[in-house]
Amino acid sequence: xxxxxxxALVGRFRPVIFALPLMAAACISPVDYGPIRHADYVANGxxxxxxxxxxxxxxxxxxxxxxxxxxxxxxxxxDDIKLLNxxxxxxxxxxxxxPQDMLxxxxxxxxxxxxxxxxxxxxxxxSLSKTMGNREGRVxxxxxxxxxxxxTSSRDTAQIARLTNFTGPVIQYSWPSQGQFLKYTVDxxxxxxxxxxxxxxxxxxxxxPWTKEIVLVSHSxxxxxxxxxxxxxxxNSSDADSSNISNIILVSPDVxxxxxxxxxxxxxxxxxxxNNDRRITVYASAKDSALSLSDDVHGYPRLxxxxxxxxxxxxxxxxxxxxxxxxAAKSQYDDPPEKSxxxxxxxxxxxxxxxxxxDYLRSAIACRDFAAVVNGERGAIKxxxxxxxxxxxxxxxxxxxxxxxxxxxxxxxxx
Length: 415
Description:
Blueprint: H1 3-28, H2 38-41, E1 66-75, E2 82-96, E3 100-103, E4 109-113, E5 116-119, H3 121-134, E6 138-143, H4 150-164, E7 170-174, H5 184-193, H6 195-207, E8 213-219, H7 223-235, H8 239-242, E9 245-251, H9 257-268, H10 271-275, E10 279-284, H11 289-298, H12 311-319, E11 342-346, H13 364-374, E12 384-386, E13 392-395, H14 406-410
Parallel strand pairs: 1-7, 6-7, 6-8, 8-9, 9-10, 10-11, 11-13
Antiparallel strand pairs: 1-2, 2-5, 3-4, 12-13
């Protein structure tokens, strides 16, 4: 076999080669319970503060401006409460702030901490109600994806708030992702385990009389948590209760594309919901190597990766001089809605980072588009180029003489 043939063969099977450690780890590397009883982590009263206790009357909301709902197991043994990667014994509510640098005696950075406290659930809802009332009832709810710790998801939540200048409260829903590359199937398992917890919370949030608009943002695997939850709320609520879940943004969604086409889009984007201003925006990239790997692991293309599963469709696009990219199809309606419910934004041309899986927080052009969508803009937003599909737009790269500072525009604290 020639050297060129060997390279071609390796290239063809590269995704499978990369997937082998992932699949092997899923089989032989179970989650370690650890040397401490989980009950000991939560024995201290700080894990379950009672109403009106000093632990829940923290006046320093400036240090902890964000809300969090979590099913992670907390460690309340020390003064600084931590959220672990294990499943918790119950859903807890709290407040947190952006990660802060910790300095040593010489003034040098010696680690980072997240200002965080657990709240009494009743007081948490009362505090959210007060904040929502001051911000016209708008709330942003962020659900992270695979391979995240509470530190990394909190960092991203804070960045989303800064990037979008969102005026209402920002909530992070933190589920027990392991934060490790070789724990993908553990993350999938924990995500499915947490479906009931999340849908219960989303239902309660949507049914509050002071909730006027929920902007629901998910990244990667988080889309598989929020989509069935929205369906659940729709099925079990009146029009008024779930129409406030109006702006759904799926960033790099690790969701089966055909499942989305057949079931999810049809239900969540029913004509009735779309006419009530329900819409979904999907960010996808052909350079997303994380979703390319997920394609190979699951056998079918992901919603966030415009890979053509059908080679004949790819050839047809090529013959027409079009990029060989396939996207989720729009729902078919007997009576089409007055508005457009689905928008797909292709970030391939502006992708940043090693894996292209987080363009919305790394690419200046994608960051601007994402911020505009969060704040209610839709359709032909500046910087989008139309494609041969009316609901698909491609983000155009900057002009040759245009220099963009991705770090500054996206307002990142760190990589």
